[in-house]
Amino acid sequence: MKKILLLFVFAFFSVPLLTGQGYSVGDYATDFRLKNVDGNFVSMSDYPDAKGFIIIFTCNHCPYAVAYEDRMIEIHNKYRAKGFPMIAINPNDPEAEPRDSYELMQVRASEKQFTFPYLFDDGQVVHPVYGATRTPHVYLLKREGSKYVVAYIGAIDDNYRDAAAVEEHYLTDAIDALLEGRKPDPDFTRAIGCTIKYVEE
Fold first, then answer.
1. Residue 148 Rama label (left phi>0; alpha psi -120 to 50; beta)
2. 93: CATH
3. What is the domain count for the chain?
4. Among candidates 136, 138, 146, 176, which has minimal Cα distance to 28?
5. What is d(CA 146, CA 168) in angstroms, rounded to the nearest whole number?
6. In this predicted model, what pLDDT tens digit does every residue of 114-173 receive, in sequence order?
7. Where in the sequence is the domain holding 111, given as residue range(s)?
8. 1-18 per-position pLDDT tens digit
9. HEC profile for 27-42?
């Protein structure tokens, strides 16, 4: 009986630890200050006129992330003028994945001519707060006064292999919904991509 009670207590208090990690749709997201590939630090507060943000956790080496780079550039170029700029963040530890070092981020951003900030999550402090687990992993935020509300989480679209074959444009549909004063539907999809890389302790 004592063992059963202990198991119940453990399960009860473990639930928040297991389910409370990262943001859910409707949560308020905190700002960050991370180093961009140009050497400057970037925060959402640097964009006082933004209606919201497209936050995408991505990286250099992951084939899923690479497959989406051109689409990311197109989305940013289209929606930044409408008040939704993109901010890309590399969450990987370069000791675990050397291809995702800050120096190689600079190379990749130059090669692809990224038109959006590409930030390094040094120490891996930001992506756990958001709850990102994959690259790419999208968090669409809507500004409400001085706060940022999570409006959509998940994938960019339904076909990483071929942009021409996409049938469901999850991210752009969600942005369009916000611009029209509607709630995104769906507001959550499963992110498809490589797992975020950590150094094994």
1. beta
2. 3.40.30.10
3. 1
4. 146
5. 31
6. 999 999 999 999 999 999 999 999 999 999 999 999 999 999 999 999 999 999 999 999
7. 2-195
8. 433 333 333 333 233 333
9. CEECCCCEEECCCCEE
